[in-house]
Amino acid sequence: MYESMNNSAPKSGALPVLDHKDAANRPGAQQSGTTPAGDIALSVSHLYKVFGKRPAEVIKRLKGGKKRSELSALGTAAVIDASFEVKKGEIFVVMGLSGSGKSTLIRTLNGLWAPTEGSVVVGGTDISKISDKELRRVRQEKISMVFQHFALMPHRTVVENAAYALQVQGVAKAERLARAEKILSLVGLEGWGAKFPGELSGGMQQRVGLARALCAETDILLMDEAFSALDPLIRREMQEQLVLLQSELEKTIIFITHDLNEAMFLGDRIAVMRDGEIVQIGTPDEILTSPANDYVAQFVQDVDRTRVLTAGGVMEPPLAVVNLSGGPRNALRTMRDLQVSAAFVVDRRRNYLGTVRDRDVMKQVEAHSSDLNAVIRKSIDPVSPDTALNDLFGRAVESPIPLPVVDDAGRLVGALPRVTLLAALGNVPSTTGEFPVVDAAVAPIPEQVVTAALAKTEGDA
Ligand SMILES: Nc1ncnc2c1ncn2[C@@H]1O[C@H](COP(=O)(O)OP(=O)(O)OP(=O)(O)O)[C@@H](O)[C@H]1O
C-alpha cells in the first residue's frame, strides 16, 4: 500500500530555514532607532515575578547582587528585571531552556500572574494597575492565547470551539458560527466545523486552537510552546502557516519555545532567557553572529546551517512507503508506480521496519510468496528528527537510499535524501520537493519488467 504524506507535508525545497523571509520587509522588523509609541503593541519594564514566601525580600537581594540560586529559601525568582518592547506586527520569540522563566513571563503578559514588581503595558494600559474587571476586558479585547496541548472543549464541535471567544463576548450564535467558519477556512480547516476535536489529528487540533485565538480578533497572540507537541513535519507546516497568517493579518505574536530552530525560523526578534533573566534580545542573525555572552554563544555554538538545521527541520515526506501487511505484490506495485528501486517498510502503526529493494521483492512475487518480511533490510538505521545535519553527512554519503527519520515512538515521519542535505546547506531549493528514493546510480527495474512479473503471477494473487 502506498502511503504519502504529501498533502500534509511542506516541500523542503521551499524551506531554507535561516532566512526564509526577508526580515527587513516585515512590519515589526525594524531594529534600530526609537520606535514611536503608537507602534508598540506591548511593553514590559523592570518586571519581576517571584513565587514563594518573601518575594519583596528576594527582589531586594537580587538588586543587591545576589543570584537567584542563593535565594531559593526565600522564594523562586521566575522572572528577573525583564524589560522589552514588542512592536505591532512583530513575531517576538522568547527562547530558553526549561525553567528559564518563559511560561511565567508569558502568563504575566496577559495578567494570569500579577507582576511582583514592574509593569506590563498592553495597548497603552498598564495591566498591573487595573481592576480584575478591566483586566478581563483587556484579555478579551487585546490578547489571546494558544496553548501547547490545544485546550479544546471535547464535547463541542470544532466550529463551536473556534467561536468560543465570540460567545464570551456575547455575539449572537448565527453570527459567531459564521465568523468562526471563515477563520477555520483561513487556517485550512474548511469543512471540518461539524467534527469534534477527538476526530482530528494533533496538527488539526492545533489549527482549531489557532482559529479560536484568531476569532477573538485581538491584536496580540501569545503562543506558549504551541507547536511543541506536534510531529516534526506538521510542526514545520504550522510554523510556515503562522508566518503566512501573520503577514496577512498583521497580528503581533509572542511565541515561546525552547527550540532554537523554531526560534530562528519564526522570530523577527528573539529574547533569550536564562535562569529568569533575559540575557539577549536580537534578530536571529544578531543572536547567531553577536551572542551577548558565553551562555548565548554556547546555545548557538559554532552555529552554521549544519548545526542549526536538524533532520526534522529539512526532511522530506517519505514518498515510497509500503505496508508490511500489503505483502510483496503491493510493495512491487508501489515501487513500479513511483519508479523507485527501494521503499521504506512500515507496519500498520507506521512503525519503521526497514527497507526493501525492488529486485528482492520481485523474487518474492515470482516465488508466489506473501512474505515481505523475509526481504526487509535493516541495515539502514533510522535517525531521530532532532539529529543535527552535521551528524548525518557521513551516513548519508554511505547510504544508497534516503535516511529514514523516525520519531520517539518509532514511527516513520520523514526521509532525508542526500540532495536535501546538500540543498539545506547551500540554502537552495532541493529539486521540486520530490526526490528519487534511491540515488540515480541504483536504477529501478524497468517498469515493463515489473508489470510483466506482476501480470504473470496475477492468477495466483
Ligand atoms: N506557580 C509556581 N510556583 C512556584 N514556582 C514556580 C511556579 N511556576 C513556575 N515556578 C518556577 O519558576 C521557574 C521558571 O518556571 P517557568 O515554568 O516559567 O519556566 P519555563 O522556561 O517556562 O520552563 P518550561 O519550559 O519547563 O515550562 C522554575 O524554577 C519553576 O519551578
Automatic annotation (TrEMBL):
InterPro entries: AAA+_ATPase, ABC_osmolyte_uptake_ATP-bind, ABC_transporter-like_ATP-bd, ABC_transporter-like_CS, CBS_dom, CBS_dom_sf, Gly-betaine_transp_ATP-bd, P-loop_NTPase. Residues 53-300 form the ABC transporter domain. Keywords: Amino-acid transport, ATP-binding, CBS domain, Nucleotide-binding, Transport. Residues 1-10 have a biased composition (Polar residues). It comes from the Bacteria. Pfam families: ABC_tran, CBS. One of its GO terms (molecular function) is ATP binding. Residues 1-37 are annotated as: Disordered. Residues 315-372 form the CBS domain. The keyword Transmembrane helix does not apply. Belongs to the ABC transporter superfamily. This is Glycine betaine/proline transport system ATP-binding protein.
